[in-house]
Amino acid sequence: MFTGIVEELGEVVSVEELTDASRFRLRGPLVTEGAKHGDSIAVNGVCLTVVTTENGEFTADVMAETLKRSSLGALEKGSRVNLERPMALGGRLGGHLVQGHVDGTGTIAERTPGEHWEIVKIALPDGMARYVVEKGSITVDGVSLTVVEAGDDYFTISLIPTTLDLTTLGIKQVGDPVNLEVDVLAKYVERLLGHDGAGAAR
Fold it and tell me: Rounded to two decimals, what is the model's pTM?
């Protein structure tokens, strides 16, 4: 489990194309401190398993399913990425409970700079709007954020200078894809109430 509080702005060192998979080497001196084979690190909100670590870098194998459901397939050498280690039991929960299981990819539709913050509008993929509510939590590229406005096919977020400076959300452009993870509680409630994926009762 993660909290959506990005610890480090890392970088893709290399991407090796494999059969139905890719092997990423990423630089992140902070998140690799003490990391070992089998540990988890969230990369742009996607929970990946560490294969090797060396000199502040780690490798992770990304399967076809993950590449299909997230924006990791668009990463290349030099891409900046948000990195976070799993939360430690007994620690402070700074954001909200995040699994690192991406529900889909959205697209940055608009950026509106303000004096002390920036409003970002993100277009939602089909079927995800029902999980997004005003003042609710959502994870965008691994960053825990509060929804400002929830529309039928979009939502907006307000980014403070710290988030703009310390995460990839400060450099993403209109048209760029972002990984989205909705609050898992909403999905459990939907399932328990006996609704299908279209929101109709079964």
Answer: 0.83
